[in-house]
Inverse folding.
């Protein structure tokens, strides 16, 4: 469990570094600092959920719904974080998709993020 925490910190730092590098490379970013912070946090949460899905697959032979992850205490933070709500679809042992959608009206134009079994976070 300690290793997961350390991995989470490393991932957040890496994503933060990537966001800063992208901002520097493209000039001034249109995203507010708060949006950047929240999106990095949501990316990290999606990666954590992806790791939980892999752990569930290893122990149960199938991917889990978010409810099943919560029941197994594998979903830290729940399904609502920083004004985003997480929804997921498990496709047996073949895959999963978890989507983070802004639920807060003030964040309506913020990006929707998604992760699947490839462990790649995609922004829409």
């Amino acid at each position: 469990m300690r290793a997961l925490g350390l991995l989470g910190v490393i991932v957040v730092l890496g994503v933060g570094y990537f966001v800063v590098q992208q901002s520097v490379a493209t000039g001034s970013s249109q995203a507010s600092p708060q949006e950047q912070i929240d999106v990095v946090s949501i990316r990290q949460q999606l990666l954590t959920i992806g790791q939980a899905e892999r752990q569930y697959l290893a122990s149960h032979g199938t991917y889990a719904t978010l409810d099943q992850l919560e029941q197994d205490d594998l979903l830290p933070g729940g399904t609502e974080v920083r004004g985003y709500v997480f929804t997921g679809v498990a496709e047996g042992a073949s895959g999963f998709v978890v989507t983070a959608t802004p639920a807060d009206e003030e964040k309506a134009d913020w990006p929707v993020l998604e992760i699947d079994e490839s462990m790649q976070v995609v922004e829409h």
Notes: The beta strands are 80-81, 84-91, 95-102, 113-116, 121-123.
